[in-house]
Write a structure and sequence with these properties.
The complex is a heterodimer. By secondary structure, chain A is of the alpha/beta class. Chain A has eleven helices and twelve strands. Chain A has an eight-stranded mixed β-sheet with strand order 2-1-3-4-6-5-11-7, sandwiched between helices. In chain A, strands 8-9-10 form a three-stranded antiparallel β-sheet. Chain B folds into three domains: about 220 residues, Pyruvate-ferredoxin Oxidoreductase, domain 3; about 190 residues, Thiamin diphosphate (ThDP)-binding fold, Pyr/PP domains (Rossmann fold, 3-Layer(aba) Sandwich); about 100 residues, 3-Layer(aba) Sandwich (Rossmann fold). Classes of the chains: A alpha/beta, B alpha/beta.
């Protein structure tokens, strides 16, 4: 084994030679920058990384990374990534998808990838709109959304990515937002370090077709009251003056004030991302603006068996039991006779 | 009506015999047929089988919809089909009799379980009167066996319950037919011991009933004679029985070994392809990775991902599944990755006839994608040929960096024949290379060109994990060489031409089209896929009558062998016989301007030899 240290990579090493073709001002730029910034911290060589995507604005992502990359077809990135990881489990695999790609045309693949729990990192850029097809409502658009395809407003209920991921019992679920780059970097790093499928929803502004969709979570004058940054083992406190908290009332969360002294910190809900039972995480995923502050951070992080290891173990067990396969043996299976 | 006669037994010599076992789906007819086949193969006959069962697991008992049949053709000569006409029908209920009687030869044996011909059974099958008692069966030699009653009697001391006892009656039929055709019982007894070793009561019961059936034949004196079918003089070698789906699975495993690769098979269960998934999932000790995906699309997409990362990637399905895989096949064409897509064809369109055979997916295989999207298409011609065809598909995929569609069909997938087991050491190695260094020419630029092509227009297969070769691929149009996204008009035209030429060049890497029979003459019969046996037999028959008729069976459907056009010109007439409405014929007419005639059949059933023979004679008489 070589004792030579790996060359220290920088964000620049992760940039490909391709011109970036997102609209100026798109939230995707911030995400790309943070991914490039975090990657060197993982200590993984460029060539061991694969970025797989589907179709949509977000799915152009792999072209801009100087790693291996696969820009596949609409909705299918989780399936392609599954094949990559099973063929070579030593690769670090990222899936980059969007709300239309991951939750509409590719919803089936997303939930099945999550339930299998391969060690793959899924970044879902949620801008609540179809951008690349120029502005139709998406499965995460709010009811009543007026778009080119819904001039009188959409009438269907939106999906909530975190609830879907937790419903499929994802072993790692987090949310962050494009404008909070430090937090996003932390989330990406934690996702990459998690063994198992990690799912991050990134609120991402589409400044062309859905500008300001997440202002509530990014604007200085309101974000403190409309988001709650959750941390393992800590009480859920939010508000400009850290004067509000989330308390559990039966099976429902409620907002309480810490100002009047009737509720103490100890009465609040303390976050536990490691609970085997996903109900708390699911409850958090249902805290939605404007009724509740929306949780940012890691909702769930638990250890669960990895699909690729399960597959590998069966292969190893079969070899142990039968010896390495010999072609002659299986050709001669069953009854044979000589002529 | 001819019925039971009591005459002394003689032995009649036959070169070949066709038996069909038919009964309700729960009567165990597939098992009876399989065991009879197995015994005949071990005995040394050539065999060919045709299982025919409903798509429903258990259709209403006693109805026509629930009839399950298993036909076995065995002989002392080489056989190529499961037989046109049934010599002996074993019918376990009135529905089975009704559904199959028209296929029985005049004067043929019809053995029925008379205990299952009660009023309700007859009504379910739509008989107004009992066909055993009127002249319905006057053309046949009817043998009425009280199989249910005799089975019950034989097992009166068995600890088994009434239902379990009733389930043994198929072994009565097997014992009886084994006696009639001089088959040894030992192979069946060995099988029973192995299969029911942990359940000795069941083993004892089946063994006892089998022997009772055998003894019944000897003592009942209802048969005029027994039959002898001698061993066949097959080419020397070690043999086993093989069904097409098993052969395909073995071919994939062999190809992976020959290529020094791990096999990845992503698949979603679908009739009649699932048996390939089942077979491969038992070969984990070959490091075979079977992945049961959430749907057909994920099955192929996972395989594409596995191909990108360096496995020998395969996926398998049947017609409706291939339709779902269409978009991803386009991705594999665009990204120029090696991938084998097995399509075990069944009757279509839509869900169609899941358990019945057809060859109507040729157009889908050739053209069923958006854009100009050529790929290699090959077809297997018989159960055992699936092994070679699977290896060939893998070889071409990795050598030419392209998806390959391998067509088989329900008939050869489930049908069995003897297989001269190949010598592993004589199988052709599959060369695979992966670049490890950048490949840019001396233009000063450093880097790796993922679409830099060799003399066959094949791009390098650079694997993730290889230092310095990082590159991105995808479904958007590529600039040749760099693989960068490119929408320029002339580049697109160039890339379409290049992908087409790459596939066309494969013609240099495949064998010439061979012809069985005269190299020129009055008629060339052209076929592809699972019709091989019927076409071959029909052509041999008419050649035996002095006719100048040749048979050419096409394995490589895209591209065609280089000499194919010349072959077609050497005959006065060309007949394309296929189990669809003329798909290969359409392509041949368009490609070679040949005025080919057609023989088409879309009944979910294979060709009879006689159907092909009649068409040949009709064309020759014109």
């Amino acid at each position: 084994m070589s004792t030579e240290a790996l060359p220290q990579l920088t964000a620049k090493d992760f940039a490909s030679d391709q011109e970036i073709r997102w609209c100026p001002g798109c939230g995707d730029y911030a995400i790309l920058a943070q991914v490039k910034k975090v990657m060197p911290e993982l200590g993984i060589p460029l060539e061991k990384m694969v970025f797989v995507s589907g179709i949509g604005c977000s799915s152009r992502f792999p072209y801009y990374m100087n790693t291996y990359g696969f820009h596949s077809i609409h909705g299918r990135a989780p399936a392609v990534a599954t094949g990559v990881k099973l063929a070579n489990p030593e690769l670090t695999v990222f899936v980059v998808t969007g709300d239309g790609d991951g939750l509409s045309i590719g919803g089936n693949h997303l939930i099945h990838a999550i339930r299998r729990n391969l060690d793959v990192n899924i970044l879902l850029f949620n801008n609540r709109i179809y951008g690349l097809t120029k502005g139709q409502y998406s499965p995460t658009s709010e009811i009543g959304k007026k778009t080119k395809s819904t001039p009188m407003g959409s009438v269907d209920n939106p999906l909530h990515p975190l609830s879907i991921a937790i419903g499929a019992e994802a072993s790692f679920v987090a949310r962050t937002v494009d404008r909070n780059v430090q937090h996003m970097a932390q989330m990406i790093k934690r996702a990459a370090e998690h063994k198992g499928t990690s799912f991050i929803e990134i609120y991402q502004n589409c400044n062309i077709f859905n500008d300001g969709a997440f202002l509530f979570a990014t604007e200085k004058d309101q974000k403190d009251d409309t988001t709650v940054y959750i941390e393992h083992g800590k009480p859920m406190i939010f508000g400009k003056d850290n004067d509000k908290g989330i308390r559990l009332n039966g099976l429902e969360p409620e907002i309480v004030s810490l100002k009047d002294g009737t509720t103490k910190e100890d009465d609040l809900l303390f976050h536990d991302e490691k609970l085997a039972e996903p109900s708390l995480a699911y409850m958090l995923s249902r805290m939605r603006y404007p009724e509740f502050p929306e949780p940012m951070g890691v909702l769930r992080c638990v250890d669960q068996p990895l699909f690729e290891l399960g597959m590998q173990k069966q292969i190893d067990d079969a070899i142990k039991a039968k010896g390495p396969g010999k072609l002659e043996d299986i050709l001669l299976e069953g009854d044979t006779w000589d002529v | 009506m001819t019925t039971q006669t009591k005459t002394p037994k003689s032995v009649e010599q036959r070169t070949d015999v066709t038996i069909r076992f038919a009964g309700d789906s729960g009567d165990g007819m597939q098992l009876t047929g399989t065991q009879f086949t197995r015994t005949s193969a071990i005995f040394g006959n050539d065999i060919s089988t045709f299982p025919d069962f409903p798509a429903e697991i258990r259709a209403p008992a006693g109805t026509l919809a629930g009839v399950s049949g298993f036909q076995v053709h065995f002989g002392s000569e080489e056989l190529h089909t499961p037989g046109d006409i049934v010599d002996t029908l074993v019918a376990f209920n009135p529905a089975a009799l009704k559904k199959n009687i028209d296929d029985v030869a005049e004067g043929g044996l019809v053995i029925v379980n008379e205990d299952s011909f009660g009023a309700t059974d007859l009504k379910k099958a739509g008989f107004a009167t009992n066909p055993l008692d009127d002249d319905t069966l006057s053309k046949y030699r009817l043998i009425r066996i009280p199989a249910t009653k005799l089975t019950k009697e034989a097992l009166k001391d068995s600890p088994l319950g009434a239902r379990a006892v009733d389930r043994c009656k198929n072994f009565f039929a097997l014992g009886l037919v084994s006696w009639l055709y001089g088959r040894p019982l030992e192979p069946v007894i060995d099988w029973i011991d192995k299969k029911f070793g942990k359940n000795p009561d069941v083993a004892d019961a089946n063994r006892a009933v089998l022997k009772v059936g055998h003894a019944y034949g000897e003592t009942c004196e209802y048969f005029e004679h027994t039959y002898r079918v001698d061993k066949a003089s097959l080419p020397a070698g070690k043999y086993r029985r093989i069904a097409g789906n098993d052969a395909t699975a073995l071919g994939f495993v062999a190809a992976a070994k020959l290529a020094g690769k791990e096999l990845f098979y992503g698949s979603y269960p679908i009739t009649p392809a699932s048996d390939v998934l089942h077979a491969l999932s038992r070969y984990k000790h070959f490091r075979v990775k079977t992945f049961q995906a959430e749907d057909e699309i994920a099955a192929i997409c996972s395989s594409i991902g596995a191909a990108f990362a360096g496995d020998l990637a395969t996926t398998g399905t049947s017609g409706p599944g291939l339709a779902l895989k269409g978009e991803a096949l386009g991705l594999a064409v665009m990204t120029e990755l090696p991938l084998v897509v097995l399509n075990v064809q069944r009757g279509g369109p839509s869900t169609g006839l899941p358990t019945k055979t057809e060859q109507a997916d040729l157009f889908q295989a050739m053209y069923g994608r958006n854009g100009e999207c050529p790929l290699i298409v090959i077809a297997a011609k018989s159960p055992s040929d699936c092994f070679d065809a699977a290896i060939e598909a893998c070889r071409l995929a990795v050598k030419h960096m392209t998806p390959v569609i391998l067509l088989t069909d329900g008939y050869i997938a489930n049908g069995e024949e003897p297989w001269s087991i190949p010598d592993v050491n004589k199988l052709p190695k599959i060369e695979v290379t992966h670049p490890t260094k950048i490949n840019t020419n001396g233009d000063g630029s450093e880097g790796f060109l993922p679409y830099k092509r060799d003399e066959n227009l094949v791009r390098p297969w650079a694997l993730p994990g290889t230092p310095t070769l990082q590159h991105r691929i995808g479904g958007l149009e590529k600039q040749d060489g760099t693989g960068n996204v490119n929408y320029e008009p002339l580049n697109h035209e160039h890339m379409i031409a290049t992908r087409a030429k790459k596939v066309a060049l494969v013609a240099k890497d495949i064998p010439d089209q061979v012809v069985e029979g005269p190299t020129e003459g009055d008629l060339l019969v052209v076929g592809w896929g699972g019709t091989y046996g019927a076409l071959k037999s029909a052509c041999e028959r008419v050649r035996g009558q002095g006719k100048k008729v040749a048979h050419c069976h096409v394995r490589h459907l895209n591209p065609f062998p280089s000499n194919f056009g010349d072959v077609l010109k050497r005959y006065k007439k060309v007949l394309v016989a296929e189990l669809n409405c003329g798909q290969l014929r359409f392509i041949l007419r368009a490609t070679y301007l040949v005025d080919a005639a057609a023989l088409n059949k879309v009944q979910g059933k294979p060709f009879l030899i006689s159907e092909v023979e009649n068409k040949i004679n009709e064309l020759l008489a014109k």
